[in-house]
Amino acid sequence: MMSNKRSKPAAKADVRENHYAAVEEILEEKLEDLTTVLSVSDNGKSKLHEEVMFMVEKGLFKIALRRSSNVKSAAAAYLGINRNTFTDKMTKMGIQCQKDK
Length: 101
Fold this sequence. Notes:
Layout: H1 8-38, H2 48-67, H3 72-79, H4 83-93
Helix pairs in contact: 2-3, 3-4
């Protein structure tokens, strides 16, 4: 006799998929608004992708720094990237690491 209950790993996978779907939907709605504002360009060639990706990455870096109390190695680990890569990108984006004094 087969059980109608799902196994725990399958149930966790469904929950995760539902969270991802909800986040994707929210993100798409916000991006729709952003693209309306940013898509205007003077020369006819849009830099929309570049601008949005820069903003998203910069935002993620700031969040990671706040959540790690401005510890770069912890912020890099939070984002799943190498510390040197994190530091290089942080510098290129003009983000200052403000250690608590």
